[in-house]
From TrEMBL:
Residues 260-272 have a biased composition (Low complexity). The gene is TBX1B. Pfam families: T-box (PF00907). Keywords: DNA-binding, Nucleus, Transcription, Transcription regulation. The keyword Aminoacyl-tRNA synthetase does not apply. It comes from the Eukaryota. Signal peptide: none annotated. CDD domains: T-box_TBX1_10-like (cd20187). SMART domains: TBOX. Residues 273-295 have a biased composition (Basic and acidic residues). Its main location: nucleus. This is T-box transcription factor TBX1-B. PANTHER family: T-BOX PROTEIN-RELATED (PTHR11267), T-BOX TRANSCRIPTION FACTOR TBX10 (PTHR11267:SF102). SUPFAM superfamilies: p53-like transcription factors (SSF49417).
Length: 317
């Protein structure tokens, strides 16, 4: 499913900028006109309406929906590196209130996990290659293991995160690192925010993932009519008794759901049991920064001289 066009450029403000003005006009021509379109944007929006949750495990778990984009405006002959990172949305820790089907603040967030960047495995590559097809980060995995040595992205459970996508021009000029801020641009899509969890909390998220993930066919009921319209029905909740529940404490217009079969309920139960038991407190360890491995997946945030935190504007239209 193709997403809606996102007319989002490289404009951003960097720490240390004395006047606080965007540095858009000083960007290198190879990144000045880069535009990024989020794929499966409608599906991301559906999850966002319910409160997207992503599973994190000790061994690492892939994201669904997968982060995929289409890129335009690159210099076809220039080399680019594509990468992703994840930043906390806030400094809060959350818990899920089942009686109100909503997330509540439960206190301050845990100690920040070691900062890592995920390089797309095809990097570096010419702009022509990046632009001719969808760019997918389907090998990216999320973990809650602070001692992970596989290059997975380390996140704390019960915290909200914003994925960020970065395009870096590989400047062949000598001492290009002195002007590194000119050679990259960053993009964020608010609809891709998610809560990191060790087990799904919202049963509607479980249902939508089963309905829309092609690898979850084994959890679906054999009655096709039960799942008809599930992936597109956002406002309706489908509890076991077939009644509807409000998505949030504020009342809103609700749809209707077919009554769930016993097999559907048991399928959701099996999916839930496959997840690791939720734990809300990580073992206290002293995080250490590790060097990049052979695949380029495990790199300190400062490797490419990119600031750890940006204050950039970006919204989908």
């Amino acid at each position: 499913m193709n997403g809606l066009v996102l007319s989002q450029g490289c404009e951003l403000s960097l720490p240390g900028c004395t006047d606080g003005e965007p540095l858009f006009s000083t960007k290198a021509p190879q990144v000045y006109g880069v535009r990024v379109q989020l794929e499966m944007q409608a599906l991301w929006w559906q999850f966002d309406q319910l409160g997207t949750e992503m599973i994190v495990t000790k061994s690492g778990r892939r994201m669904f929906p997968t982060f995929q984009v289409r890129i335009s405006g690159m210099d076809p002959s220039a080399e680019y590196v594509l990468l992703m990172d994840f930043i906390p949305v806030d400094d809060k820790r959350y818990r899920y209130a089942f009686h109100s089907s909503s997330w509540l603040v439960a206190g301050q967030a845990d100690v920040a996990a070691p900062s890592r960047i995920h390089f797309h495995p095809d990097s570096p590559a010419p702009g022509a290659q990046w632009m001719k097809q969808t760019v997918s980060f389907d090998t990216l995995k999320l973990t809650n293991n602070l001692l992970d040595d596989n290059g997975h992205m380390i996140l704390n459970s019960m915290q909200r995160y914003q994925p960020r996508f970065h395009v870096v021009y590989v400047d062949p000029a000598p001492n290009s690192h002195l002007n590194a801020y000119k050679n990259f641009c960053s993009f964020s899509f608010p609809e891709t925010r998610f809560m990191a969890v060790t087990a799904y909390q919202n049963h509607r998220i479980t249902q939508l993932k089963i309905a829309s993930n092609p690898f979850a066919k084994g959890f679906r009921t054999t009655e096709p009519q039960v799942w008809e319209g599930t992936a597109s029905s956002l406002a309706a909740s489908c509890p076991p008794d077939g009644s509807t529940e409000p998505l949030s404490p504020e009342p809103r217009e609700q749809g209707t759901c077919p009554k769930s079969s016993t097999r559907q309920r048991s399928s959701s139960s099996v999916l839930q049991q496959e997840r690791e038991l939720p734990h809300h407190k990580e073992t206290s360890v002293e995080p250490t920064m590790e060097s990049k491995d052979e695949n380029g997946l495990m790199t300190p945030a400062h490797f490419l001289h990119i600031p750890v935190c940006w204050d950039f504007a970006g919204s989908s239209h």
